[in-house]
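// run 5 | inverse folding | seed 20
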């Protein structure tokens, strides 16, 4: 074993969970499924697969995952973050088994190269591979950013390295689920952008090139310092064309066109439209607490004035 604990967050993930656990059961010592009171048989699948199930009410991904880090009885030396619809492939399983126990003491985290599978096809172009994400870290040396969207793991007390094996995001649900999920994501991202502009509550900006993925830190900088300052009617179209033409997204075929258009144009346009809608709703308000209350009413998100967690 690799002295590794795996944490998976779930809510009605019976379609995916067994596959995810199967992909890590031979490389992990502990598997914790933190469930948000699923109404299907997610919890039973987890237990039958040998995972320990914890139940906790969901607010957002970041708070749920940090709760797992703070409350799961983890004893392994290393911790992995895995989504229910993700898979650790055989070559990465071997790499983790061989390399993880032998990493020097100054390594605090491990980045993985994620591929995205859409309509059962690997999206190889358009800047979508590899997505380099920090997903493994030494217990006690990592936390998740407290954000509504685009939350990343950050580490301290050491450097990060990157493994090269296969790591896939392969959701088996249909396009209705995809669009519903991204509609929900768009609301959360719109709130984060408004907070960036109005400073409504403390912002957790933990990602740097040192304590997380270099790629993630660069993308965060470009999004917040450049992209979000351009009118969305221009930026969303420009982003799609950049991905589809200059980053060769057209080579992904017809299913790739669907993906790049929906995720690279429609979603970005939707985020911008929601920001516009919310800005109009709070126009004329100056009191930050009044604005937070109104945004809570409009979005259904539990917005507050709490300081992001920086527990170490």
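// decoded
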């Amino acid at each position: 074993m690799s002295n590794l604990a795996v944490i998976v967050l779930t809510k009605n993930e019976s379609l995916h969970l067994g596959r995810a656990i199967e992909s890590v059961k031979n490389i992990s010592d502990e598997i914790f499924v933190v469930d948000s009171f699923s109404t299907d048989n997610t919890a039973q699948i987890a237990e039958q697969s040998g995972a320990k199930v914890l139940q906790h009410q969901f607010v957002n991904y970041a708070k749920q995952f940090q709760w797992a880090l703070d409350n799961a009885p983890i004893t392994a030396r290393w911790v992995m973050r895995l989504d229910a619809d993700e898979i650790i492939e055989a070559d990465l399983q071997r790499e983790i088994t061989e390399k993880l126990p032998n990493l020097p003491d100054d390594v605090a985290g491990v980045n993985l190269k994620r591929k995205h599978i859409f309509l059962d096809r690997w999206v190889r172009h358009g800047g979508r591979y590899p997505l380099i994400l920090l997903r493994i870290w030494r217990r006690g040396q990592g936390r998740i950013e407290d954000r509504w969207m685009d939350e990343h793991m950050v580490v301290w007390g050491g450097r990060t390295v990157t493994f090269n094996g296969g790591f896939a995001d392969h959701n088996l649900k249909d396009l209705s689920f995809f669009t519903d999920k991204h509609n929900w994501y768009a609301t959360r991202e719109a709130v984060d952008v408004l907070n960036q502009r109005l400073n409504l509550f403390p912002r957790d900006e933990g990602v740097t090139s040192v304590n997380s993925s270099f790629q993630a830190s660069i993308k965060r900088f470009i999004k917040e310092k450049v992209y979000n300052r351009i009118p969305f009617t221009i930026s969303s179209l420009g982003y799609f064309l950049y991905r589809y033409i200059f980053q060769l997204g057209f080579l992904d075929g017809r299913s790739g066109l669907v993906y790049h258009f929906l995720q690279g144009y429609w979603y970005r346009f939707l985020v911008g439209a929601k920001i516009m809608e919310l800005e109009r709703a709070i126009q004329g308000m100056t009191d930050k607490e009044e604005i937070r209350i109104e945004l809570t009413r409009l979005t259904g998100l539990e917005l507050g004035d709490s300081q992001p967690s920086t527990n170490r």
